[in-house]
Amino acid sequence: MNAPIRAVHAEAARNVAHALLVRDLSLSFGGNQVLHDIGLQLEPGKITGLIGPNGAGKTSFFNCLTGLYMPQHGEIRLGSDNLIRLAPPQRAVLGFSRSFQHVALCPELTVAENVMVGLDRQSHAGWLDAFLPLGGGRKERARNRELAMSALQRLGIADVAQAYPTDLPPGVLRLAEIGRAIAGSPRVLLLDEPAAGLNSIETRDLAESLKKLRSPDLVLVVVEHDMDLIMDVCDIIHVLNTGRLLASGSPGQIQTNPEVVRVYLGDDDA
């Protein structure tokens, strides 16, 4: 086997080792079947889109990934780790991070301080460090501030680090929330409708920021209704409909898939 082929095989093996694997995932509430045998491989180094009509099961799928919902059947693996019985805090320790549809920043904290909140799971200082000038607590706070500033710099909003959320527009607040989600260098980042409530200019800036997050060590999944954003930033898109996987493919393949057009995208005349 020559060197280029070996490199391709090695890269494929690495992706599988770090991928988020979902097999035969089913979820129901009472007699209502929400997800039907979903099987996906969410790969690092790519931005994955998850789309579908309202009620398709997108948020329920996210909640299964993070442990908020316990599916009745199926398997969720991150590399060699089986996650299906792990609670949300345990999955956070393994590197799961997510945002929600509505921005939730503390108005009494600066942007940098809000981002530092996302590092709590990595912090070791106890309550006593909050009241006494202990060396360990000081070092940890300095480290967390440095990581927070790095996340804001990566998203291009380091200049508002000392501002308060009430003084900033929605687009910047959304980026600050994403900054909080990435400050701890997650292995899996789940973004739930990050463009909700943003205007066209803010959505464009968001798209450019999301592209900067693409990393060989990060599984990045975006649920979104803004199709221009999804088609712009995503490498692969999965389409859900009534809790079932309808289609998977590149943006071009999804745009021309007749079933996807019929149930979700519509046509130009519509």
Automatic annotation (TrEMBL):
Residues 20-267 form the ABC transporter domain. Keywords: ATP-binding, Cell inner membrane, Cell membrane, Membrane, Nucleotide-binding, Transport. PROSITE patterns: ABC_TRANSPORTER_2. GO terms for molecular function: ATP binding; ATP hydrolysis activity. SUPFAM superfamilies: P-loop containing nucleoside triphosphate hydrolases. The keyword Cell cycle does not apply. InterPro entries: AAA+_ATPase (IPR003593), ABC_AA/LPS_Transport (IPR051120), ABC_transporter-like_ATP-bd (IPR003439), BCA_ABC_TP_C (IPR032823), P-loop_NTPase (IPR027417). GO terms for cellular component: plasma membrane. Gene3D superfamilies: P-loop containing nucleotide triphosphate hydrolases (3.40.50.300). It holds the Pfam family ABC_tran. This is ABC transporter ATP-binding protein. It comes from Cupriavidus necator. The lineage of its organism: Bacteria, Pseudomonadati, Pseudomonadota, Betaproteobacteria, Burkholderiales.
